[in-house]
Amino acid sequence: MILRELIYPGELHVLPEDISLTFDRMPLEIWFDEYQFEVDYDIGESGTKFLTVKELDIDLNNVELRYGYHVGHPSLRKEIAKLYGGNNLDNVAVTTGASEANFAIIAHLVGPKDHIIVEHPTYPSLYQVARSLGRDLTLFKLDWDNEFRPDMDKLRKLVKSNTKLISLTHPNNPTGSVITEAEIREAIEIAEDAGAYLMLDETYRNLMFDTPPPLAASMSPNAISLTSMSKTWGLPGIRIGWAVADRPIIEAIIAVREQITICNSAIGEAIAKEVLHKKDEVLAIIMKAVRTNFKIVKDWMDSQDWLEWIEPKSGVIGAPRLRKGGSTDELCELLVTKYRTFTVPGSRMEMDGYFRLGFGGEQEELVKGLEQLGKALKEIHS
């Protein structure tokens, strides 16, 4: 028998010698399980502050709690399709968060003999799925010296004869870097020349400080757009995301969903539809708070002697690092255990030396959390 740590760290579970795990837990999510619910101040979350049903003022009394459409309710898909010029509801698959869409697309497109390129840093499942399935994976590294902007010449050199999928995330998680329309078009051209698809995670697109580029799926049948209601809209609890893509990709997502989740939550879909229906009104309120919070965190970072960052160009997260270098594990552990403040060490995202700093929450919580972070930095470095 061997001992393996499963489900919760620190608990030992006995597995037979001949059982191995195809999927490993993500260190980032283990960190969340361990600490996020044990703190007073959260400045590590990657989205805007979660909302309540009461705050949304949505009547859910007539929502039918039945099995839904495997590809998502038509009325919600129509609402989504309006955002993507040249696409209709047949090009939309509503999924359990963007993560399910990501899993389904990689599992379908990238076979055992195929190659995938994934931009890094990013949300870990975008590369962990490929690793767990044993696929040929190349990480397309974003560099500090280039302000975490994607270098398209570097990307082009990573393509192989068997490349089937290129995955980018912009605005980037966790650096806040952005991609231009010209860069998206070049990435699409690189994918098309390789006979591959470009998958662009656009989860933070609606949190752009400036005018966003066109949605990728509206630019080419070889482009796939991913997003969710979690980060921008403060609705991670409804678990609604979607992919917009060429019809064969949508059919593949449906096939995978029928083996896992079958359909979405009826309540989740109802909430998503209502919020998207009044998206301009809701987004205006959200962006006002985001801009105020960004100024707070920018002014705080500008005053720091121990930290530096590439200033985020959009979104609600940034990735500071210690000026003198070194791991941020000690800092983040001290924050949660003594100062009851949550951030995410870069080691949990294969980005050692950095940490994720979120500014999408309530202003008072952000101010207090930064105060606690300052105390922890002083304790360690003074």
What fraction strand?
15-25%
Which whole number gives the mean pLDDT? 93
- Count every helix, treating DSSP H or I runs of 4 or more residues as helices: 12
* Largest sheet composition: 7 strands, mixed
Gross morphology: globular
- Would you tell me which CATH topology of the largest domain applies? Aspartate Aminotransferase, domain 2
Give the strand order of the largest sheet, numbering strands 1, 2, ... along the chain: 4-10-9-8-7-5-6
The span between the termini is 48 Å
The CATH class of the largest domain:
Alpha Beta
Number of domains: 2
| Series of secondary-structure elements, N-terminal to C-terminal | EEHEHHEHEHEHEHEEEHHHEEEHEEEH
Residue windows where pLDDT falls under 50 for at least 5 positions: 1-8
CATH architecture descriptor name of the largest domain = 3-Layer(aba) Sandwich
The CATH superfamily of the largest domain bears the name Type I PLP-dependent aspartate aminotransferase-like (Major domain)
Question: How many strands appear in the DSSP assignment?
Answer: 16
Structural class computed from helices and strand pairing: alpha/beta
Q: Rounded to an integer, what's the Rg over CA atoms?
A: 21 Å
